[in-house]
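Support request from a user on the community tier.

User writes: "When I paste my structure tokens into the form, the page sometimes reloads and wipes my input. The last time it worked, I copied everything first. Here is what I submitted, just in case something in the input itself triggers the reload:"
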């Protein structure tokens, strides 16, 4: 089960997604947790068949379910709803602004299960709450680094403090690329296998340049120089040059960097005076785009060299 969860109070307090929920009963259960972004319409459960009920999901009752409860005999409805409320259900939500049946209101109040009502049509509400839950329940983390958009490629720059990540980002912005985040990158996992990075709200659009101080990229270079969020496509780590270390000079074997269980293409670039890191990062982004189109320069060269090194028949060497 997803370790990230939301309370029913979080649903009630939403102002961004327009859920427009009103609590009608079960106030004791507003601290119930929702762990899944999937919802359930418990039509069969209202008939007494609860074998496939998922209590951890939000239970949505539309016009069909409410009409069914109003049409069956009151005694039978009471039995079915009482049986349903024995489960640790996170909450019931009635759509279309329908008035909750008294028996449902009474049983949810007794069991401490929140009963909420939304004015939206069922299809509209399901779309809204699914988007809300998917956004809020996604795994997240934060990384010390810089995220830039280089030619449409989300490049996450890593490296120890003071190695030059922010200076590289500034140079890339001057070349026409776009800053997403500096210093702290908040990363959210998008299903099925994408990572989206953005800046902390308090320091958004700002970059710290040692000796210069903190500057606002948006104010200096305009709105075309920034992005609020970007999918992370590759990771580049800047490391201090070590003369005793053997660095990759061919690039035949691809390396990967794991974030939130997703592997991203990874490149380690040694830093030393005289190396134009901005150009290297820009070329790395271009090369990433080529690889995405199925063109791998290093492997193509290797294949050509291997083909030329093949042993030829003796007669082919004599004119």
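"...and here is what came back when it finally went through:"
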């Amino acid at each position: 089960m997803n370790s990230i969860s939301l309370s029913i109070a979080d649903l009630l307090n939403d102002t961004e997604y327009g859920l427009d929920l009103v609590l009608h009963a079960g106030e004791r259960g507003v601290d119930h947790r929702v762990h899944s972004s999937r919802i359930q319409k418990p039509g069969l459960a209202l008939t007494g068949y609860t074998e496939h009920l998922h209590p951890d999901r939000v239970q949505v009752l539309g016009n069909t379910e409410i009409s069914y409860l109003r049409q069956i005999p009151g005694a039978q409805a009471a039995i079915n709803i009482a049986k349903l409320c024995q489960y640790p259900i996170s909450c019931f939500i009635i759509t279309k602004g329908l008035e909750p049946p008294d028996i449902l209101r009474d049983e949810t109040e007794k069991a401490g299960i929140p009963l909420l009502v939304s004015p939206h049509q069922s299809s509209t509400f399901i779309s809204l709450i699914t988007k809300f839950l998917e956004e809020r329940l996604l795994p997240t983390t934060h990384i010390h680094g810089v995220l830039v958009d280089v030619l449409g490629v989300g490049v996450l720059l890593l490296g120890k403090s003071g190695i030059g990540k922010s200076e590289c980002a500034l140079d890339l912005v001057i070349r026409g690329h776009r800053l997403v985040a500096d210093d702290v990158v908040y990363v959210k996992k998008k299903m099925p296998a994408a990572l989206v990075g953005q800046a902390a709200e308090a320091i958004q659009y700002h970059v710290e340049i040692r000796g210069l101080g903190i500057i606002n990229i948006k104010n200096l270079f305009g709105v075309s120089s920034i992005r609020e969020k970007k999918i992370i496509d590759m990771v580049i780590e800047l490391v201090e040059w070590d003369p005793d270390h053997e660095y990759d000079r061919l690039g035949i074997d691809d390396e990967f960097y794991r974030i939130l269980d997703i592997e991203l293409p990874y490149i380690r670039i040694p830093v030393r005076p005289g190396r134009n890191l901005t150009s290297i990062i820009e070329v790395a982004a271009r090369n990433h785009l080529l690889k995405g189109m199925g063109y791998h320069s290093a492997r193509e060269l290797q294949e050509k060299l291997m083909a030329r090194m093949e042993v030829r028949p003796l007669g082919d060497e004599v004119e």
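Agent notes: The reload is a front-end session timeout and is unrelated to the input. The chain has two domains: 6-137, 140-303. The CA atoms of residues 32 and 90 lie 5 Å apart. Escalated to web team.
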